[in-house]
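Example 3.2
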Amino acid sequence: MSARWIPAAGPARGLAVAQLVNSLGDGAYYVCSALYFSQVVGLSATQIGLGLTVAWGVGAVAGVPLGRLADRRGPRTTAVVLALATAASVAAFLAVRSFLPFVLAACAYATAQCGLAAARQSLLAGLVDRGGRTHVLAHLQSALNAGLALGAALGGLALHVGTGRAYLAVLVLDAVAFAGCALLLARLPEPGLDAKPGRAVLPDPVAPPAPSVLRDAPYALVTLLNMVMLLRMPLISVAVPLWIVEHTDAPGWTVSALLVLNTGAVMLFQVRTASAVRDLPSAVRTVRGGGVLMLVSCAVFAGTALDAPLWALLGVLLLAAGLQVWGEMRQSAGAWQISFDLAPDGRQGQYQGFFGTGVPVARMLGPLLLTALIVTWGPPGWLVLGALFLVAGVAMGPAVRWAGRSRPTAPAVASVKPSGPPSRAR
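Structure, written as C-alpha cells:
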C-alpha cells in the first residue's frame, strides 16, 4: 500500500511524509473541531460558520503575498515557518472561550494554511523537475488522503469518548503533527542555493521587478475556472450528506460509506490517474474529461430523488459517488500540471498562492451555494451544478491556450494546440 502514496527516496519522499504527518492531525481535527467549538468553547452554529467564513476569506487574500515571500526568502524556510505558525494557531484554539478570540485564531490558522500550501508548491517546483511534478503531487494527494483517513479514525475515538479532554487531545495532536511537519520540511534542501553554503540566490537587485500574478489576466481566468471545479470539495462533505438525509430514503450510514469510497479511491488511484498527464495538452484533456464525469455524476445524483427500492437507491448513490471521485481525480491531476507549467520560473510561490485561492473560496462559499442550489432546489439544482462543471472543464482549453500565447519563452506552454498529438517539449 505504501508504494502507492510514498514516492522513491529523495526530496519527493520527504514532501510526502511531511504531508502524511500533518494530514493525520488534520483528519482528527476535521472530525472533532465543530463539536469542540460548540460544546467546549460554547459557540453557536451561526458563530462558527461566520467565523470560519471570515477566516478562509482572510486566508485566500493572504496566499499571494505569502507565496511571494516564499519566492524571495526561499520556499523551504517559508514552509517551515508557516507550518510552525499553523501549529501555534491550532494550539491557540485550546485557550479560546469566546467568539472574537475564535475568529482571530481561525484567521491565523487559515492564513498559515494557505501560505503553507503555496510555499509547499513552490518548494516542490524547486526540488522536482517539470516533467515529474504532477506525478509527485499525485503521491502527495494519496498521502494526504491516507493521513486524513487515519486521523479521522483517531477523531472518531475522541467522538466516542465525547469529553472535553478528548477534544483537547485532538487539538494537541494536530498542533504536534504540524510541528512534526515543520521538522520534516526543515530536512529538505532549499532550492536556489549557490555554491556558498547557506547563501540563497536572490533576484538581481538591478533587474526590473517581475509583474504580479494579479496582473496576469490569462492565469486569473484559468484560476477562476479551476475555482468553479473545486466546488466538488464541499459537494461530497456537505451537500451530498444533506441531500441523502433530506431527499432520499437511504440510511444515515450511507453518508459514511460514500466518504470512505471517496477517500479510499483517491488514496489508491490518484497516482495511476495522474500518470496520463505529461504536459499541458494532456492536462487540458484530463480536466475536460473530469468536467464531463462530474456532469454525469450530478445527473445520477439527481436521479436518486426518484422512488426506488433501497438496494437500487444504494447502487445509484455508489455509482454517482464513484463517477464524482473519478472526475475529481482527473480534474486534480490536470489542474496541477496547468498551474505549474503556466507559472513563470522564479515566481512559483506567488502563482501557486493565487491558484490555491480556489480552495479557501470553495470552503468559504461552497457550502452556502451548494446548499441553496441542491438541497433547496432539488434535482434541477444538480443539473445546473453539473453544467457548471462541464462549462468550466471545456473552457479550460481556450483559457490555457490564451495563457500560452502570453508566455512565448516557455516551450511546454507553447506546445498547447487545439488538437493533435501532445508535444513532449519540456
